[in-house]
Design a protein that fits this description.
The complex is a heterodimer of chains A (330) and B (297). With 330 residues, chain A is of the alpha/beta class. Helices cover 31% and strands 21% of the residues of chain A. An 8-stranded parallel barrel of chain A has the order 1-2-3-4-5-6-7-14, surrounded by 7 helices. A 3-stranded antiparallel sheet of chain A has the order 8-9-10. A two-stranded antiparallel ribbon of chain A has the order 11-12. Chain A starts with 6 loop residues before the first strand and ends in a 9-residue tail after the last strand. Classes of the chains: A alpha/beta (330), B alpha/beta (297).
Chain lengths: 330, 297
């Protein structure tokens, strides 16, 4: 496989973050409408139709692309909201839409045959056989691969799946298979799948109990730690839990993904695009991470040594991981 | 209303599985029984050697047998195995999209781990041959009613008893809880026939680990919902096997459906069979899954 240009796909939770990402060197920005149609449906985030129109125009003026994430699963009886999001994204000139739901994919491929479709990580297509379903039936052109594959497995996927591969490069890392985890709604009633939120802020509580801070989600204790220590956000897969009398981070430690040290192997594997997670993050965060990845990718293209930019201060828990990309994670 | 005994989610020893299904064949008032490993390919690396004998025995007892696939069907060998089951005449339950692509055009069942959340997805999988769909736990009973109206020829199967799968992962938490990796897991999941209990730091039981899956700690116990579900057009209900007297439990459901037993009385008797595990029905009411709406049970 001939190494090629790696496209840098960056998050924009707000129009300001979109402009910041593009100014910092993003090739492509992804964003969503301000409702449950996207998987980062948090208060104060996302784009109304006018914002989206301006954001797309801004990106196109700079020769960059905008992907609109419509990557949640409509509840029964609510599909019209998702259809409208697809229609509007197409009308506003989005370069592609990122979809997960079979019904929404079917709608988009029939109504907008010229619209480029990307398969969201929420569809959890982790092998060439499931990808074939989406490629053959809906004509997807790219798939965002679940964060459960090793680099050799990604290389095998790329060689056989017949569409472009986009992989996660930096940011928060859920441990469960994306689109197949409802722990959040078990405790709060709202989940990533249909509400676009995991551990919604209105269900999170910080209680001081003696010398301890207790962090609860939907009234369920997710962690306890000394009051002066920084708290990780209580997504259920980062909870400290007890099995056989022993407390542990049963699912995963609070760590953040950073692939800077394995960029060459991802490029060798034939990956088309690198995705930075974090539409819920600030403009300053987006600028810093995008700038670092731009510098690293430019160096990689030139065959120059890595600038070795340290992003450890920006990752969750201050600890970096290669996640599933390295064997042994499972 | 027909009763399905869903696939065994937990890992039981071979002897125990054989005894369980023999008794189900002889004694359980269920119409349909699912066989096949759903959670982890390592539990039965060469397939279940007892499958032919168990399925024959169940069929002789007049039960329909459905073959459930893994939640991750990831290799061509696994797909070939599924196609082989189709050729043998089994109805197959797809628990992964990859499997749907392989068996499209034949009649099949869609299991609760495939994200069919709405009527558009439902009618799409029905166009590819799905004759029965057991929607994911998050679909409320109001949602099931939408499903039943949107695809009247498809049987919508509501799960009315047992633990609900809350997450699927590549990592094995059973192995991790023992300081092991999935690659050398020593099949430690077999030690917990009803799942590994997981509590919060405050001692509240919250979920049960089942290999790569996380299940609800609470059992769905929708005895009071059986008649309302029937009125919504639901013709089938599913019981998920737990480490309990499933024959007695199936009998409670059968008697309630047939009007021989009052739902409140059935729920009180169920409590006697399940011990102190909390009951849940939140998802059915579009609330948090762990909620119980109704009289304390």
């Amino acid at each position: 496989m001939t190494p090629r240009y790696l496209e840098l796909v960056c998050p924009a939770g707000t129009p300001a973050a979109l402009r910041a990402a593009i100014e910092a060197g993003a090739d492509t920005v992804y964003c969503g409408f301000a409702d449950a149609t996207n998987a980062r449906n948090y208060p104060g985030l996302n784009f109304d139709r006018d914002d989206m129109k301006e954001g797309i125009a801004f990106a196109h003026r700079h020769g960059r692309h905008v992907l609109v994430a419509i990557n949640t699963f409509p509840r029964a009886g609510e599909t019209a909201i998702w259809h409208r999001a697809v229609d509007d994204a197409a009308a506003l000139g989005a370069d592609a839409v990122i979809l997960a739901d079979i019904g929404v994919l079917d709608y988009a491929s029939r109504r907008h045959p010229d619209l480029r479709l990307h398969l969201s990580v929420q569809a959890a297509a982790s092998n060439p056989i499931s990808l074939a379903f989406y490629r053959e039936r809906f004509g997807i052109r790219r798939a965002v691969l679940p964060r459960v594959l090793t680099v050799p497995e990604i290389a095998h996927m790329v060689a056989t799946m017949g569409v472009e591969a986009e992989v996660f490069a930096f940011g928060s890392l859920g441990t469960m298979t994306e689109g197949r985890c409802i722990l959040s709604s078990y405790m709060t009633g709202r989940s990533p799948s249909s509400d676009g939120v995991c551990a919604p802020a209105e269900h999170v509580r910080f209680d001081e109990e003696g010398e301890e801070m207790v962090i609860r989600l939907g009234g369920i204790t997710m962690n306890r730690f000394p009051r002066n220590q920084a708290a990780a956000y209580p997504t259920p897969c980062k909870a400290r839990l007890v099995t056989r009398g022993v407390p542990s981070y049963l699912f995963d430690e609070p760590v953040g993904l950073n692939v800077i040290d394995i960029l060459p192997s991802l490029k060798e594997a034939g990956v088309t695009a690198l995705k930075i997670e974090g539409r819920q993050r600030s403009r300053a965060y987006v600028t810093q991470v995008v700038r670092a990845f731009r510098a690293e990718l430019d160096a990689l293209d030139r065959g120059a040594p890595s600038p070795g930019i340290d992003l450890s201060g920006l990752v969750e828990g201050g600890k970096e991981t290669f996640g599933a990309y390295k064997k042994g994670w499972r | 209303m027909k009763i399905t005994l869903g696939p065994l989610m937990h890992h039981w020893s071979r002897e125990r599985r054989r005894d369980f299904y023999a008794r189900i064949a002889d004694e359980a008032p269920v119409d349909c029984v699912h066989l096949g490993e759903v959670v982890c390919s390592k539990r039965a690396p060469f397939g279940d050697p007892d499958l032919p004998a168990l399925s024959a025995r169940l069929q002789e007892a007049g039960k329909e047998v459905v073959f459930s696939t893994l939640a991750f069907v990831s290799s061509q060998r696994e797909i070939d195995d599924v196609l082989h089951r189709c050729d043998e005449g089994f109805l197959v339950e797809a628990n992964d999209v990859s499997c749907i692509n392989a068996i499209a055009g034949r009649p099949y069942v869609v299991g609760p781990m495939v994200n069919v959340f709405n009527e558009d997805s439902l009618t799409y999988v029905a166009r590819l041959g799905a004759i029965r769909v057991a929607p994911p736990p998050e679909v409320s009973h109001a949602g099931l009613a939408v499903f039943a109206r949107a695809a009247p020829l498809v049987d919508i199967e509501a799960t009315v008893f047992g633990r609900q799968t809350l997450s699927v992962a590549a990592r094995c938490y059973h192995a991790r809880s023992r300081g092991l990796h999935r690659d050398n897991c020593q099949i430690v999941c077999e030690q917990d026939p009803d799942g590994l209990p997981v509590s919060t730091l405050d001692g509240q039981p919250i979920v049960a680990v089942n290999g790569t899956q996380t299940m609800s700690h609470g059992y769905v116990a929708a005895l009071a919902d059986l008649a309302p579900l029937a009125r919504l057009g639901i013709r089938r209900v599913r019981l998920s096997p737990q480490d309990l007297d499933m024959i007695a439990i199936a009998t409670l459901y059968r008697d309630t459906i047939d009007g021989r037993l009052d739902p409140a009385e059935a729920l009180a008797r169920l409590r006697g069979l399940t011990g102190a595990v909390p009951y849940v029905n939140g998802y059915a009411r579009a609330r948090e899954g762990m909620a119980w709406v109704g009289e304390p049970a």
